Amino acid sequence: MVRPCRLGLLLILAMLLSACGAGRSARAQALDDEDEVEGPAMQQDFFIDESTFDSWVFGNSRNATNARARLDSMLELKLAELDRVARLTEAQKKKLELASRGDIKRFFDQVAVKRQTFDLVRRDRQKFGMFYQEIQPLQQALQRGLFGDGSLFAKTVKKSLDDGQAVAFDALNAQRRQFQRQARLGRLLVTLDHSVGLDQDQRQRLTKLIVEETRSPIRPSSYDLYCVLIQLAQLPEDRIKPIFHDSQWLAIHQLLAQSKAYKQIMRREGVLPGESPDEPWAVAIDPEAPKSASDGKKSD
Q1: What is the tens place of the pLDDT at every residue in 215-248?
Q2: Residue 262 sits in the same domain as residue 188
Q3: Contact assessment for residue 203 and residue 290, using Cβ atoms and an 8 Å cutoff
């Protein structure tokens, strides 16, 4: 027979064990709850400031206000230039300004739509990683200019100008494109000159090769050099290598190989020329300028 005092001790012990078990269960549940909220808590730490969107879309303009002011200035200059060569009537000026304002409005409407999307994904790391690709067309449009082929401005120019004005306008555009290509070719040669040190004969031969065997990038970009190099890399080596000394060729050969890694990027950016001969370099720059300090020095 169990004594009453002993029975009481057993009951107390059972109650304590039960309480301990309940305490452990409560603590375990609390830990489980903490594990469940850890993911959202970490997700909340990811945050992209709104200024990032502006810097991506507007580049050096930094924000929409500056970008709009820059576009207004570009429009004013473009209309003044067109008026100078085509002698626009007041009615034509109004039509062209209205069309160009439509191009600007369309661009900023697209920016507003993407800004709304940005606000939805700026706290979501996974979704934000895919969002950047969506704003690249806006970047490219601003870099190319809003008043080029396909714009309301360009379409209105074709419809509004008479035959004589159209001839003058086409001549102006051709002259501008030629000047731009010439300047870009000059910058490419300066870059290569600084990299390997070209003498006068090498500049002449390299310029001739580029003009005859490559096409100008579709539009100016930071990939101009690689656009040319990737085309040169497709030529037989014996067309390029004889231009350079042995030590120079090592550096040039490395640049040609590196250019291939940018092919898909350049296609995505819309700067890599195709097979069409629509945009030849047309006119080579003076191969004697600029000269490198290494002129006349032979590399081993």
Answers
A1: 888 877 888 899 999 999 999 999 999 999 999 9
A2: yes
A3: no
Written as one letter, the residue type at 18 is S
**How far is CA 223 from its chain centroid?**
10
**If you search the block for the tokens 């030849």, which residue do you land on?**
280
Residue 3: per-residue pLDDT? 47
Cβ neighbors of 235 (< 8 A, separation 6 or more) are 209, 213
Q: Which pLDDT score is estimated for 280?
A: 60
Query: Does 186 share its domain with 112?
Result: no
Residues 121 and 84 in one domain: yes
Helices (H), the chain: 4-44, 50-58, 64-86, 90-121, 125-144, 152-160, 163-196, 200-213, 224-232, 237-240, 246-259, 263-269
Instruction: Report whether 271 contacts 218 (CB < 8 A).
Output: yes
Instruction: Report the half-sphere exposure of 47 (CA within 13 A, side-chain side).
Output: 6
Contact at 8 Å (CB) between 291 and 200? Answer: yes
pLDDT of res. 180: 83
DSSP string, 42-107: HHHT----HHHHHHHHHGGG-SHHHHHHHHHHHHHHHHHHHHHHH---HHHHHHHHHHHHHHHHHH
DSSP 12: H
Give how many domains the chain has, as a whole number.
Answer: 2
Position 34 pLDDT exceeds 90: no
- Look up the domain containing 157 and give its range: 50-163
Residues 6+ away with beta carbon under 8 Å from 289: 186
Dihedral of the alpha carbons of 52, 55, 58, 59, in degrees to the nearest 10? -150
